[in-house]
Sequence to fold (365 residues):
Amino acid sequence: MIRKYDGKIVLPDGSEYPGCRFGAREDRVCELVFNTSMVGYQEIVSDPSYTGQLVVMTYPIIGNYGVTDEDYETKIPTIGGLVVREYNDIPSNFRYTKTLSEILEDYSIPAIEGVDTRKLTRAIRDEGSCKALLTGLDVPVEEALERLAATELRHDQVPRVSCKKRWYARTSNHHYTVVAVDCGIKLNIVRSLNARGCNVTVVPFDTPAQVIEDMEPDGVFLSNGPGDPEDVGPVIALVRQLRGKVPIFGICLGHQMIALAYGGRTYKLKFGHRGGNHPVKDLATGKLEITSQNHSFAVDAASLAGTGLEVTHINLLDNTVEGLRCPADRVFSVQYHPESAPGPQDSGYLFDRFIALMEEGKRHA
Fold:
């Protein structure tokens, strides 16, 4: 059955991209970004790093394997909205428990299909990420532009998605205790630490350093999360207080906050990195990793001089900083997501490196 267009996306330049709405029937103003992954739409929809963003999927067919209870990255998805070329509402995977549209409805997330996603992606690539309005087809463009101009993008994403009280993820016969600072942590990060013998205590982003020290962890993990790293002052201050006292491992937003804590700077990329196909070079070994990425900001390499941080990885597409470390403080970080199984196992060694630092700390305690 051919559906009639009933919705559209409007950009600040007045361009309109019509389509058919599914999921929640809500209007939404979001930051417009694109993702080049060919699989993993459930993980993308449930990744807290996409809070408040309208995500354009470049892969043309979305929804074909449904949604599975075991594959969520957070319990309550907070993505702003979803844009796809073709939506399949009849999944063919034996594991699926709901359709993608049903999940979007459950969590009040609007979506639209039938959009010319190739043209829209080129617009984002050429002009950069921008505000966009997902609305009804009958809304006049003048009204849409007024709504865009009157809406400011929020800067409180991390407080919105961080847990409100600590929670625990334990494993049998554990060898290490890790405190994970939740800025929008993905559940597969917790699972990856559990699989390596870590009991994980997940704490709110604004947990004081003394509280974490009193837990006597073997290591501290700084999670991924949405928004501008400069907005997350409590975690930047936390790194300054804990560095040198305990091994620290940061991923994505955690990587950026480590750079800021040491005196580096970050800047916003034109359209960000989102997808599972970014080549990254490990400068120590010369090896190439195929990585999964999701971020709008990057660390300014020139700002790292004199900070004590050294660059360990670079992105081969644009030479942006992908990894940092301070051996003296037992601190290291990466911009990409090793828990997302890119490659599919290219980056798993990073968790093992964290384990090795904690084991070393135990031997010298």
